[in-house]
Design goal:
Blueprint lengths: L1 H47 L4 H20 L5 H13 L2 H8 L16 H5 L6 H7 L5 H14 L3 H9 L2 H7 L3 H8 L10 H4 L4 E2 L11 H10 L1 H8 L3 E12 L2 E11 L4 E7 L6 H17 L6 E9 L5 H7 L6 E7 L5 H19 L5
Helix pairs in contact: 1-2, 1-3, 6-8, 10-16, 12-13
Length: 366
C-alpha cells in the first residue's frame, strides 16, 4: 500500500516538474521571439534615419552582425538579422498593440521602447523557427491562417513546414468539406508514414493553364504538358514526369494513359487520367484495369504497386465513395480548379468553418 502511495506521489511530482519545464521553455521562447521582433523594429527605425537607406541598411546589418556575434556568439548572423527585420515588417506594431491592448495602456509606436517584452511575447506563442517559416508565406491571409492553425493544433515546426508545403490553406479554402479538413489537421501525427491520400492534394489549383470556360480532355492534357513545370510544382516536390499517352494493349484493343508520373517517396508509378466532367464509376473501373496492367508490366523491382489518380472537375458524391471505397488507396479521385474564387470569399468561408469547429469541440485547451 505504501509503495502504491509513493508511486502515485512520484508520478504526480514528475508530471508537475515536466509541466513547469515546458511552461518555462515556452516563456523563454516567447521572450526571445519578442526580443527578435524588437531588434527588427530598431533596425527598421535606424535604417529610416539613414540618408541612403539601401546602402545604409546593408552596412548596418553587416557591422551589427559582427559585433553581436563577437559578444553573444551564434544567432546573430547577417541572415538572422535580416529575418528579424522582415519579422517586424510582417507583424507591424499596430497588430501587436491590438493583440495586447487589453493588458497595456494605449501607446503610440513612438512609445514602443517602454513596453515590457514579456507582454509582446504573449503575441508570439510559437517558436521563433515557426515564424521564420511563416515569413516565406507572402499571402497575409494564408500566413494568419497557418499561424492560427499551428497554435490551435499544436504543430511542430516540421508539421507546419509540411502543411505550408502542401498548400493546406488553399486546399482547405477550396475544399467542399472544410470542417473535415480542419478537424484532420488537429490530429496530425508528428511522424506519419506517407500514404497515397496524404501525397495528393485535393483540390488541385490549375489556374495557370489559362483555359476557357469550355475545353476538352485533350485541351486539358495539352495545357498541362505546355505548363509541365507549373503542374509538377502544384503536384509537389516528390513527383517526376515519366510520359504522356502511354499505350497498352489488351487482347485486340489499344488504350492510352493520359499521364504517367513517379512519386519518389511512395516509390510508385502514378497513373493520371484527366476528366473534364463529374466522376463516374466507369472511371474507377477503367483505372483499376490500368493499375493492374502497370503492376504486371511496368513496375520495376523495389517499387511499390502503382497508384491511379483520377483528376476530375467534381469527384464528390456517393458514386465516388462506393466506387473507390476499400481499394486501399490504390485509386484516388481528386478535384481540380482552373479558377480561384475571390480571396475574401475564401477567407470568410474559412472563418465560418473555424467557428463551427470551435462550437463543436470547444476552444483549444478545453
Amino acid at each position: 500500500m505504501a509503495l502504491d502511495l509513493y508511486q502515485h506521489m512520484h508520478t504526480g511530482i514528475v508530471t508537475l516538474v515536466d509541466q513547469a519545464r515546458c511552461q518555462a521553455a515556452r516563456s523563454v521562447n516567447a521572450l526571445m521571439t519578442a526580443t527578435y521582433w524588437e531588434i527588427g523594429r530598431r533596425l527598421v527605425t535606424q535604417e529610416q534615419a539613414g540618408i541612403e537607406r539601401a546602402a545604409y541598411g546593408q552596412e548596418l546589418i553587416r557591422q551589427l552582425s559582427g559585433d553581436l556575434s563577437h559578444r553573444f556568439g551564434r544567432g546573430f548572423s547577417q541572415q538572422n538579422l535580416w529575418q528579424m527585420r522582415a519579422f517586424y515588417l510582417a507583424w507591424p506594431p499596430e497588430a501587436i498593440l491590438q493583440t495586447v491592448s487589453g493588458e497595456l495602456p494605449v501607446l503610440q509606436e513612438s512609445d514602443m521602447s517602454i513596453i515590457d517584452l514579456g507582454m509582446i511575447g504573449k503575441r508570439f506563442p510559437l517558436p521563433w523557427s515557426a515564424y521564420v517559416r511563416l515569413l516565406s508565406v507572402k499571402n497575409l491571409a494564408a500566413r494568419e491562417f497557418y499561424e492560427t492553425e499551428a497554435l490551435r493544433c499544436g504543430w511542430s515546426v516540421r508539421q507546419l513546414e509540411r502543411q505550408v508545403g502542401s498548400q493546406y490553406y488553399e486546399r482547405t479554402a477550396l475544399s467542399r468539406n472544410k470542417l473535415a479538413m480542419l478537424a484532420k489537421a488537429g490530429s496530425l501525427p508528428e511522424e506519419a508514414a506517407l500514404s497515397a491520400q496524404d501525397a495528393f492534394k485535393d483540390p488541385f489549383v490549375l489556374e495557370f493553364l489559362n483555359l476557357k470556360d469550355e475545353y476538352s480532355e485533350s485541351d486539358l492534357e495539352d495545357a498541362l504538358i505546355e505548363h509541365l513545370a507549373d503542374f509538377l510544382l502544384e503536384l509537389g516536390d516528390d513527383f517526376t514526369f515519366v510520359g504522356r499517352q502511354r499505350r497498352l494493349r489488351l487482347d485486340d484493343s489499344w488504350f492510352r494513359i493520359d499521364l504517367l508520373l513517379f512519386h519518389r517517396r511512395l516509390r510508385s508509378l502514378i497513373i493520371v487520367e484527366l476528366k473534364t466532367g463529374k466522376f463516374s464509376y466507369a472511371d474507377a473501373g477503367q483505372m483499376h484495369m490500368y493499375v493492374n496492367y502497370a503492376r504486371a508490366h511496368w513496375m520495376k523491382p523495389g517499387e511499390n504497386p502503382p497508384i491511379g489518380l483520377i483528376l476530375c472537375s467534381s469527384p464528390a458524391g456517393a458514386e465516388a465513395h462506393y466506387a473507390l471505397d476499400n481499394l486501399g488507396g490504390a485509386i484516388l479521385a481528386a478535384e481540380y480548379r482552373i479558377l480561384l474564387p475571390d480571396e475574401q470569399i475564401l477567407v470568410q468561408q474559412l472563418h465560418q468553418s473555424r467557428l463551427a469547429l470551435a462550437q463543436r469541440h470547444g476552444p483549444p485547451g478545453a
